[in-house]
Amino acid sequence: MTANRNRNGPVGRFFGLPGARGVSGAVLELVLWWIGGTLSWLVTVSTVTLPETVAAASSALLGAVLARTARRAMGFQAAARGIWLRWAALVPAAAVTDTVRLARWLAGPRGESLQDQRMPGTASPKATGWRAAAMIALSSTPGSVVFYSDPDAHRIHVHVLAEGWPRLDRHVSPGTGQGL
Predict the structure, then answer these.
(1) 12 contact partners, CB below 8 Å, separation of at least 6
(2) CB 131 within 8 A of CB 137
(3) Are 153 and 121 in contact (CB under 8 A)?
(4) What predicted TM-score, i.e. pTM, was given to this entire model?
């Protein structure tokens, strides 16, 4: 019996990361999610102890299984794009500057805004992946959070408490020629 084929290989045979097929791809994906979750937990604790590490690893393992399951249920392509490296480099700078701005914001009444950011509006896997990565980047700083995605209107809605350099919101909005 021959499996149906599409341009990505046998239909229904994709288990893990793009480019990694079979059980090894699924295991690799789970390990990457598990390491990422464990490290994310451990960088937030004041003292890394054995019980804390066990709790982090246990929770991250459950999170890895859930993350993989959710990623498979959603039709998006999360293959890394070069521009996402720029976003990742800007997030720490935006987090520090937003924290300073928010300290002043808490001292007295300051403005806030609800903004719309242009995003790819198609249902293609690339466009959905772009929106997902953009929402993660924008919500990773203390000065903004994405609270709604509207693919039909080609927008995400962002609650902004702190604005200014490095203008992460402008970097995640796709320009022309992004190939989406």
Answers:
(1) 3
(2) no
(3) yes
(4) 0.56
Q: Using one digit for the tens of pLDDT, what is the confidence trace for 6-20? A: 444 443 444 445 555
Residue 81 phi/psi, 5-degree rounding, is -115, 150
For the segment 106-150, what is each residue's pLDDT rounded down to a tens digit? 777 777 777 888 787 666 777 777 788 888 888 888 888 888 888
The whole-angstrom separation of Cα 129 and Cα 135 is 10
- The span from the CA of 147 to the CA of 129, in Å, is 17
Count H helices, E strands: the chain?
Answer: 5, 5
DSSP letters, 119-144, are: ---S-SHHHHHHHHHHHHHHHTSTTE
Rounded Cα distance between 136 and 159, Å, is: 14
